[in-house]
Design goal:
- Residues 226-327 form the Glycoside hydrolase family 2 immunoglobulin-like beta-sandwich domain.
- By secondary structure, this protein is α+β, with helices and mostly antiparallel strands.
- It has 9 helices and 31 strands.
Length: 557
């Protein structure tokens, strides 16, 4: 959030659906099937930060050529996690530059001996620029810290008797520049009476910590050499029938057949088809509804795809199953509709941010968050301010939590952040977001930026306007009596200008830094502003515990 009024732009899915087709290859989530295996590489990796003045020692000494331990001391680094808060080395907390990860892996023999098997290395995310070597061979590069990337490494692991031994080296640079997403600047401080030679700081223009590292899972998975590369699903409703439109991309063979089956939650066949594209009609379909909008929300079907390809050694089969929710999304001048009914976004802005692990993916935290969401009666959240882990969206599909899926377009505050290079990077990231998340029924909007230069004449090109407002905090400080009038003026002005639905995407005031609890103690806490008690949260009537009263609080229980 920036000071003053700003806008988080959001656009509907159908407008960007085609963007994913511009990228080379699909990005299906790695799922096991009769034809696919996966090997998790989560756990402890060897780690080293390059503290040299130019941050280039690792490249100059070619650390990727041999095991990382042979070129100097290493730390144990858990993956997934951010590296910033794991060590007791204070330099890592705000480190800017290249860090190096390494993991040695033993592959199953069948992966290395069966030439009809394709082996893929997939990195869930590496913030922000990554270079990957496999056994010292430069294999893959990727820019952007919150999205997956992968490479076919079959030719590196199917080459001889030692091919089952794999050494994966990943160098990651977390530097933010005017053309990265999110952007930032590097400031060199040259006053030698205050700063050592070459001293610099990373300036950011957003209000969350720039955690970095291998923050999501790294894994290996296999497919046949002829395989299902991508699936795109859109859904609709016609009278009482659900419509599932599918488009399937196949790689590795031009001679193949595709069978498509749609199964309900009880594993019963409800529709089937063939070919790379088609439409499945489901009479009496159960629709995917948001939480608290239907007695059985979040109903999911399973789309089973079977590929049979003709290869020179003989026929090859590949199987992939995609969860599918049948639902429609539309907007009018004043309403957001899901399945033709008005939907009110009642939810939160989340962050992937926690003690010790930083932005590292963590299942216990994720499940706790979803229990909190349902406890609150929330039905939606925005992925402020970057795409979240794929597993988060899968949980949303299962729980009926609606998602505004936001790209890392945050902190676009300076004129130098708006240029053609930045635009191309922004478009590429949006394409990657859509390619990854297009099939999630929970995702109903793509947010293309948070608080950009909203004075520009750009709002006509979006479907929904999201407003971030902090009345009685950033201005007219403490005058709560003005909020209603100023908010009414804000909404009327935006609506009069654009006639589009409006979401209040952020609001509020200062909180107690670091205070995050849900116990009875929290629910009876006082919140103070400049020494004045501005609100008091009463303990719920069902709480039977009696914590000692806050000595600073005039309202004792």
């Amino acid at each position: 959030m920036a000071r003053g009024l700003a806008v988080a732009w959001a656009v509907l899915g159908p407008l960007l659906w085609g963007c994913a087709l511009a990228l080379q290859g699909g990005m299906l989530y790695p799922r096991e099937s009769p034809s696919r295996e996966r090997k998790e590489l989560d756990g402890l990796w060897s780690f080293r930060a390059d503290f040299s003045d130019n941050r280039r020692r690792g490249f100059e000494e070619q650390w990727y050529r041999r095991p990382l331990r042979e070129s100097g001391p290493t730390l144990d680094m858990p993956v997934p996690s951010s590296f910033n808060d794991i060590s007791q080395d204070w330099r890592l907390r705000h480190f800017v530059g290249w860090v190096w990860y390494e993991r040695e892996v033993i592959l199953p023999e069948r992966w290395t001996q069966d030439l009809s098997t394709r082996v893929v290395l997939r990195i869930g995310s590496a913030h922000a620029y990554a270079i990957v070597w496999v056994n010292g061979v430069d294999t893959l590069e990727h820019e952007g810290g919150y999205l997956p990337f992968e490479a076919d490494i079959s030719n590196l692991v199917q080459v001889g008797p030692l091919s089952s031994q794999l050494r994966i080296t990943i160098a990651i640079n977390n530097t933010l520049t005017p053309t990265t997403l999110p952007p930032g600047t590097i400031q060199y401080l040259t006053d030698t009476s205050k700063y050592p030679k070459g001293y610099f700081v990373q300036n950011t223009y957003f209000d969350f910590f720039n955690y970095a590292g291998l923050q999501r899972s790294v894994l290996l998975y296999t497919t046949p050499t002829a395989y299902i590369d991508d699936i795109t699903v859109t859904t609709g409703v016609e009278h009482d029938s659900g419509l599932v439109n599918y488009q399937i991309s196949v790689k590795g063979s031009n001679l193949f057949e595709l069978e498509v089956r749609l199964l309900d939650a009880e594993n019963k066949l409800v529709a089937n088809g063939t070919g790379t594209q088609g439409q499945l009609k489901v009479p009496g379909a159960r629709l995917w509804w948001p939480y608290l909008m239907h007695e059985r929300p979040a109903y999911l079907y399973s789309l089973e795809v079977r590929l049979t390809a003709q290869m020179s050694p003989g026929p090859v089969s590949d199987f992939y199953t995609l969860p599918v929710g049948i639902r429609t999304v539309a907007v009018t001048e004043s309403q957001f509709l899901i399945n033709g009914k008005p939907f009110y976004f009642h939810g939160v802005n989340k962050h992937e941010d926690a003690d010790i692990r930083g932005k590292g993916f963590d299942w216990p935290l994720l499940v706790k968050d979803f229990n909190l969401l349902r406890w609150l009666g929330a039905n939606a959240f925005r992925t402020s301010h970057y795409p979240y882990a794929e597993e988060v969206l899968q949980m949303c599909d299962r729980y009926g939590i609606v998602v505004i899926d936001e790209c890392p377009g945050v902190g676009l505050a300076l004129p130098q952040f708006f240029n053609n290079v930045s635009l191309q990077n922004h478009m590429r990231v949006m394409e990657e977001v859509v390619r990854r998340d297009k099939n999630h029924p929970a995702v109903v909007m793509w947010s293309v930026a948070n608080e950009p230069a909203s004075h520009l004449e750009s709002a006509p090109y979006v479907d929904v306007i999201c407003l971030n407002s902090y009345y009685s905090w950033y201005h007219d400080y403490g005058h709560l009596e003005l909020i209603q009038q100023q908010l009414t003026t804000q909404f009327e002005s935006w609506y009069k200008t654009y006639q589009k639905p409006i979401i209040q995407s952020e609001y509020g005031a200062e909180t107690i830094v670091g205070f995050h609890q849900v116990s009875g103690a929290e629910l009876s806490v006082c919140v103070f502003s400049r020494g004045r008690d501005v609100t008091h949260l009463p303990r719920p009537y069902w709480e039977s515990r009696h914590e000692p009263p806050c000595p600073a609080c005039p309202h004792f229980f």
